[in-house]
Amino acid sequence: MKNYKTLLFLLLGTSLLFCCTSKAQIYPNKNWSKNKNPSLSGWKDVERSVFTRYLIDSTNITGLVIVHKGQIVLEYGDIQENSYIASCRKSILAMLFGKYVENGTINLNRTLEELNINDVSELLPIEKKAEIKDLISAKSGVYLSGSNGGDFRRYAPERGSVNPGTHWLYSNWDFNVAGYIFEQETNRTIYDEIESQLAIPLQMQDWNKSLQQKNGNYEISKFPAYHMWFSTRDMARIGLLMLRKGKWKDKQIISENWVNEIITQRTSYLETQKSVPILKEDGLDLGYGYMWWLIENTGDYRLKNAYSAQGALGQNITIYPEIDVVLAFKTKSDYRRRNSIQTQMKVMKKAVEIYNSN
């Protein structure tokens, strides 16, 4: 009986050890690890080849990676060159906010008036009531021009006609001011925070702080855009951090609560499409959280609860929680090439349509 109990204990211990190790999550170290046989993990060779041919023939993408369970299962183009990531910058800023919201340095309920925010064109009294949380959810109700283009301000209602927090409009004025307030309240630059919060702990391979620079027309607005340059494979690290709810190996880099906050729906796809009708034509129904786009109204289980950072010309980080996948791709603007929003949406769908878990 004693030997039987000892044997049973050893078997149970071995079983538990196998269970724990088999579920251990994979993270890249200095370099990404690659799945040596993706076809055994649901990524058949033929489908991957067809997808790659689509990228070559039908897109201007210059770098793309698909990461499944922490390992690269497909890569295309130059994934290590740093280039401009356009509006993906906004989603990265949202991540940086978490540390300071949770330690009380930033109060999302503070108003523009309390923060002494004004611009080249004076804010109206109703606009000064907008809160920080309205800025990062694109609901400020302030319809001034941003210092840079690339938004949907042409769909803006008349200034002063809506209360802050009630109407969604993707406006660079909101996002640029959010960046200004972040630096004002923390006494830290956005680029220093990317380095300390993300680049160093995630062991980014290509991060170069000297490339990062703000830009904008200061005659239009005194709040510049905080442009960013990343490599595709470093963008994938950001996506993996989000997929793992802010955890990187054994350390919580961003709190799980904050990750959940920024991907919580603040605006439904029906509301975004009502405010900006052309969004109906893009090929995916997108709601909005805190500076992250949310994929909604989909019948594909692989797209369920997915969300993404998106930028002009073809910059993208998409997270697919249901299948443990991250997609990152971009188009280097220096080549004068671009991808339409519709092409981006097709890539976001096709990238996981080639995955079959059966």
From TrEMBL:
Give one Pfam hit by family name: Beta-lactamase
Alphabetical UniProt keywords: Hydrolase, Signal
Q: Which InterPro entries match?
A: Beta-lactam-related, Beta-lactam/transpept-like, Diverse_Enzym_Activities
Superkingdom of the organism of origin: Bacteria
Q: Name any one GO molecular function.
A: hydrolase activity
**Keyword NADP among UniProt keywords:** no
Q: Which residues form the signal peptide?
A: 1-24
Q: Which residues form the Beta-lactamase-related domain?
A: 64-336
Q: What name goes with this protein?
A: Serine hydrolase
Q: Which organism is it from?
A: Flavobacterium jejuense
